[in-house]
Amino acid sequence: MAGPAAASPEGQVTVVPLRGVPTSSLLARVAAGQVGGVILLGSWTSAQATAAAIGQLQRVACAKLGSPLLVGVDQEGGSVRRLAWASPTLSAASMATTATARAQAAAAAQAMKRAGIGVDFAPVADTTSTTRSFLGTRSFGSDPIVVAHLVGAFVTGLQRGGVAATAKHFPGLGSAVASTDDRPVTIARRAAFLDERLAPFRAAIEAGAKLVMVSNASYPALDPSGAPAVFSHVIVSDLLRGQLGFDGVVVSDALDAGAVDRFRDEPGRALAAGVDLLLYSRTAASEAGYAELVRDAARRAAVRTELANAIARIKALKASLDLVCPS
């Protein structure tokens, strides 16, 4: 009897949105190996419904592909809390001590783990640098050293509970007054200023954060080309991986966001920069991105090499989370 089919390389790096009960078309995409993970969007008001939706997807992935999907959620606390039934109950700005941050994250991990969620797209490691910051209470504060301590504690609390933490949005969105979800954003700060605000990301990496999410903003002082960070080899590979020594999984911010959706060849550009997981917030965009990446990989050996490198890191992440199909 033939074993499970292999997921396509392009599918293994593609993260698609899930807003409720999986549709037949999503289940078909999973069965065809076109999906590597899902991000829970919208509001999930019931732990039971969340676990049921995830279980349905995982049963298809395991039956057809022999490997479970990565399941992630933006569960920061405060105003960004997709799981209404789970911690953190406090916003980052309200977590005044490392003990509080660690406890809030530990409680979140316990709840997420029970529902089958392996990745939290948190904590926000951005240091606010203006009172007009669009982040508001999503940031731990305006002092990068204080933020670093709290970020490290949050990462530790999550990962001791078996859920992978994601430090975001590298190399920092604390100076932005508009969201990259809506429009292009340029962070016009000097390199020394930006370097000081890398402290929370360094702390997250030292605490063992398994993922880092890269910003969709541009940082001319770091990359004079003006490319958004998610497409910048200088920022992802040279700075994050090289100088900061991060060897885990790099995930994009939403590739269908207003800051970057005008670019052609988005998935290929992100992979070339050193990104591993390509995240989409809209189903149609995820389908188009997958198809584009398939065409790119068929034409260019470099893309196939970048896919192989990304998949190796994704597999290591799954192994570290004990994500396996039941025997």
Structural account:
By secondary structure, the chain is an alpha/beta fold. It has one domain (72-317): Alpha-Beta Barrel (TIM Barrel). It is 42% helix and 11% strand. The radius of gyration is 18 Å and the shape is globular. The relative contact order is 0.13. The model has no long low-confidence stretch (mean pLDDT 96).
Notable characteristics:
globular, TIM Barrel, eight-stranded parallel sheet, two-stranded antiparallel sheet, alpha/beta, 327 residues
Quick synopsis:
With 327 residues, this protein is an alpha/beta fold. The chain has 11 helices and 10 strands. It has a single domain (72-317), classed as TIM Barrel (Alpha-Beta Barrel), CATH 3.20.20.
The number of E-state strands comes to 10
Structural class by secondary-structure content? alpha/beta
Give the total of domains.
1
Q: Would you tell me which CATH topology applies? A: TIM Barrel
Question: CATH top level?
Answer: Alpha Beta
The percentage of residues in β strands lies in 5-15%
Which consecutive residue ranges, at least 5 long each, have pLDDT under 50?
none
Supply the CATH architecture: Alpha-Beta Barrel
Topology readout:
Blueprint: H1 9-12, E1 14-18, H2 24-31, E2 37-40, H3 47-65, E3 70-73, E4 75-77, E5 80-81, H4 98-115, E6 119-120, H5 144-160, E7 164-170, H6 191-196, H7 199-206, E8 211-214, H8 233-243, E9 249-252, H9 266-273, E10 278-279, H10 283-299, H11 301-320
Parallel strand pairs: 1-2, 1-10, 2-3, 3-6, 6-7, 7-8, 8-9
Antiparallel strand pairs: 4-5
Helix pairs in contact: 4-5, 5-7, 10-11
